[in-house]
Every structure is written in C-alpha cells, then in structure tokens.
Amino acid sequence: EAQVTQNPRYLITVTGKKLTVTCSQNMNHEYMSWYRQDPGLGLRQIYYSMNVEVTDKGDVPEGYKVSRKEKRNFPLILESPSPNQTSLYFCASSILTSSSYNEQFFGPGTRLTVL
Amino acid sequence: SQQGEEDPQALSIQEGENATMNCSYKTSINNLQWYRQNSGRGLVHLILIRSNEREKHSGRLRVTLDTSKKSSSLLITASRAADTASYFCATDAGDYKLSFGAGTTVTVRA
C-alpha cells in the first residue's frame, strides 16, 4: 500500500530535550516536505527536499533541522525544543515534475507537546 | 508565507445541500489544489487544477479557477455527513513551495 508513515504519532517532551520525528514514504517520490499545523494558521511549511541531499527552508524553519540521506526517509530534528514548537506536524511527499507539483501524499501526523 | 485564504472560515449545511467555499491568492500560480482533512488527521488530496484550466470536476466536486481574479472555488454537491471536514486550498507558485490557506471547516447536519 502506498503510504507515508510518521513516528511517533504522539510525543510529550520537555524543553531542550532533542527529539527526532521520522518520516518514510514507499512511493519513490523525489519531493518530501514537513509542515506544522496550528489553529487558525493552516499548514506552514518548515523544510522541503527535492531529492537526496537536497533540502531547503520553507516558511518557518527556525528551530528545526532535516536531512535526506535516502530517498524514502526525511526525518525532522528538533535540537532544543521549546514550548512554541508544540504543534501538529505532517510529513508529505509527491512526484516532482519540472517546478510543478502533483498531489501531495500526507502522513497521519505527529502531535508534539513541549512542556 | 500563506498565500491562499479560504472563505468562509466555517460553514454549516443540511445533508443534501451544496457547499461552496472560496480561495483567494496573491501571486501567479502553476496550479491550485484542494485538500480535505478529517479531524486532526492527514490531508487527503481532492483535486488539482492547472493555471490554464477554468473548471474541473471529480465526482461530486467542482472546482473553478479564475486567474484574473486570483481566486478559486470548491463546490460539493449533495453533501453527506461524511463530507464534514476542513477543506484547504494550496497554491503552487513554481517556487518549490506549496502554500496552504487556513481552511474552511464544513459541518454537514443530518
């Protein structure tokens, strides 16, 4: 089954404790992206990657890191989480043709609470 | 930055009625997409309309695009309880970023 998986689905942590949210897709998609969703703000893009070893900042990259060592995986790293990073996080992937997108496939989301 | 803005923010309709929501955006685009999200779950792609298209249909969904007004609309006909969800438009401006609006929450009453 074609899918994007994220782990963990729920996480409660404390300020400053490094954490990683994993994302994996089995569709051989070039493009992967991380979003955060906050009430009233919709989805905001954190980082994206157009292929292995190619990553770039989205609209809200501060406090986050990513890496793309393999095509299928795109982990999101919070080196020193703070309470303002409490949010619902989504990973997504898609085929990338030229500079245009096809549909994005979303993971189930990771609800992160930073105390 | 958030390019798409949906209107209204919330919509409540009776089962069987049609639901219409609008999306406005600011810059020129390659395409515009609509997604549905059920209660905190992942988004599901509904339909993509390219900048050279004016209207597109998929089942009970009808999407229009007016690039001169920088706006799009999503019409759901003969709504069902299962259509209760949040709906988001997302614009592809050719900068490798897909920009989402804040969404329209649709409630379909039985």
Characterize the structure shown.
The complex is a heterodimer of chains A (115) and B (110). Chain A has 115 residues and is mainly beta. In chain A, 0% of the residues lie in helices and 53% in strands. Chain A is globular, with a radius of gyration of 13 Å. In chain A, 38% of the residues are buried. Chain B has 110 residues and is mainly beta. In chain B, the strands form two sheets. In chain B, strands 2, 4, 5, 9, 10 and 11 form a six-stranded mixed beta sheet that branches. Chain B is 0% helix and 56% strand. Chain B is globular. In chain B, 37% of the residues are buried. The chains are: A mainly beta (115), B mainly beta (110). The interface between A and B is medium-sized, with 30 and 26 residues.
Q: Structural class from helices and strands of chain A?
A: mainly beta
Chain oligomer state:
heterodimer
Gyration radius of chain A, in Å: 13 Å
Helicity range of the residues of chain A? Answer: under 10%
Written as H for each helix and E for each strand, in order along the chain, the element string of chain A is EEEEEEEEEEEEE
What is the string of helix and strand elements of chain B?
EEEEEEEEEEE
